[in-house]
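just leaving the lab so this will be short. below you get a single protein, a line of residues and a line of whole numbers that encode the local backbone shape. id like you to explain what the token line says about the fold, in plain words if possible. thanks a lot i owe you, the record is right below:

…
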Amino acid sequence: MPSERIFWILWIVVTAWLLACAFLVTGEYPDGYQTIVNSRYLFSDSPAYYLHRGPLAAIALWPVEVFVNLFDVRPLDVTPYHLYSAALHSIYLLGCWWALRNTGASPLARILAFAAAILTVVFYAYAPYLSHDILPGLLFLLMIYIANRWLSAGSPMDAALLVIIGAAVVLIKQTYALFWIAIVAYGAMALLFRWDDARVSWKKFGLLLSFAAISGALTWLSYAWVSAGEWGHIAWYRRPWELAVGVSEVFSKNAHMVFLTDLYLRNLHNSGIVAMLLVLPGIIVALRGTNARLRMIAIWWVIAALAVQFVTFKEVRYLLFLAPLTAVLVVPVIEWSIRQRLMLIAVVLVLAVDQVRGLSVAAG
């Protein structure tokens, strides 16, 4: 059976599962409930607002709020929100496949990379719920593609898209400010080591910094505006800073007792056994190769993976944003494995074990 057809079968099956979960899963994680409350607040239907949650996730739920109000859905019924989440995560799967098709790899390598890095235990565990961690990963990869194109062509439209997407992801979750940190860090390294025929000049690096600053300003103003209702007594320009300080002090000195330092290391296998085994070889291949975009993905993956280690708050799902990058990085290694029969058999067997683990979570 052609690999392209296998993907569409997988997509239909997973989408059907997500839709079924919308009716079967009757609860939410705290961040999901808080996002719903925030959406109702912005819809003038709730007196409370959780300031530490990004406003864009709540704004994105407005179509659901219209539906909920129109049909007088019970306040604690999360089915409409889960249906909306199912649609978004189904689109996410399509976006990941589009990214893999853009690698130019064989269909078999793409489908194996998709199953290894995207359809993981963590995905099955959190995709049925409202999530701040799944879709932003695709936006992260999209930013890399756009940044790579901008560095080569300097299109004003690409510059505008970088600013908008860069601001949007931080308005979903403050942690995603590291997307811009990764871009600027890559630009500095490319300038210093004169990668790809020195395509990152001082002028382009300065422009990258200015794009990041504009994106940051938009984010700052947005958080200042959203927090006006709760913090009207604080000067508007200080509100985002007070918010950041408040979030960082939620657990104060007890953070190390709540969030395990080695949580991510303990749960690497839940991000895909094959993917985690092959991502480091994939990074090495990318760094030693001549594909500028793949090198960008590798460097951004490393920077982001290291950066989250220094963030106090740690949950297994917080690494989900790296999944699309991981999928693209492992493609060349899987492509090589296909030409080595024993390696291909090993990859398929381990992947089968991983999918059984994922399906056991999905069935639960």
Observations:
- The longest helix spans residues 202-226.
